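Chain X:
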Amino acid sequence: MYNVIRGDCMIDLVEILTGIKDYILIDSSYQIGKEYYENSSIKGLSSIKVYGSIREMEDENIYLDIEVMGKMLIEDSITLEDVWYPFSFKIKENINEFIEKDENSLDLLEVLWQNIVLEVPLRYTVVNDYSKYHGDGWKLVSEEELSNNPFSVLLDEKDGSD
């Protein structure tokens, strides 16, 4: 099943809250509209695959237990070109604060979006060959080359003196 999220992605929880069902299974793909990420560092989102369940526990709280997978289009931190960054995460949490009390429903988009935003990396690159990134008196080096730097001893001594 493929759902396009343009406004809300409401999941009706009445069957759980009334005891008709013990859980609701979620196995869907969602396409989040550009209006949600246009003011962020995310330039695009693939279809977001969500699967798992929602259930009421003995403590009368509603728990979401899902796995989310997708790709986000972000800027490569070295080349500044757009690259796809794959992400996946699990959400296992009490969702009572997200439930619309008068409607007995859950806006899944709010939960998904809060967690997707947390997955945006500060820096990400697909560059493997750093040799073509250089200029007059400088060059880009890998972490391995940096650790083999004979001057790294001086950096270590400086860090210890602070």
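Chain Y:
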Amino acid sequence: MKKKWYDNLWIVSLTYLVLGFFNILFAWLGLLCFFIPLIIAIAGGNKAYCNRYCGRGQLFGLLGGRFGLSRRKDIPKWMKSKFFRYGFLVFFLTMFLLMLWNTYLVFAGVRELRQVVTLLWTFKLPWQWAYHGTLFHPGAAQFAFGFYSVMLTSTVLGLITMVLFKPRSWCVYCPMGTMTQLICRAKNGAP
């Protein structure tokens, strides 16, 4: 089978993580991974992004499949359940809104910039080397630290489920996948 241009989008996901490690402002590029799936789902009424263009899913497929870093076990039924997927989506959106609130506080001058990446919403990793001030308001950097935290956390969760289960197990409960599925159902009139 001939490779298509989008078969190597895993490189984009990996590049994003590396760039954010060296300069946190690159985290803003992650918004593309947030809006493009939603736009595709709204415009096309399908999950083409998840099935074809998601670089993170491709990365997990590559690491777990070709490089054999996956146990290739079925994901537990409870992780496939609507309760878990929708619950995780609500939790993830809550964490995203909290990140936006912290960004607002820095923009409003109520709080100082925290040069920290929070991994798994718990572990605060100092990340000072990745930001040295710019022409932008510190709130822009606060958003970048928060968004990079979200992206890094979801990547780590994906890697964990990739190792424990099948390579693309993250895709089963990915918040973006759940949101695009809801959009597609609403657009196509499915229950």
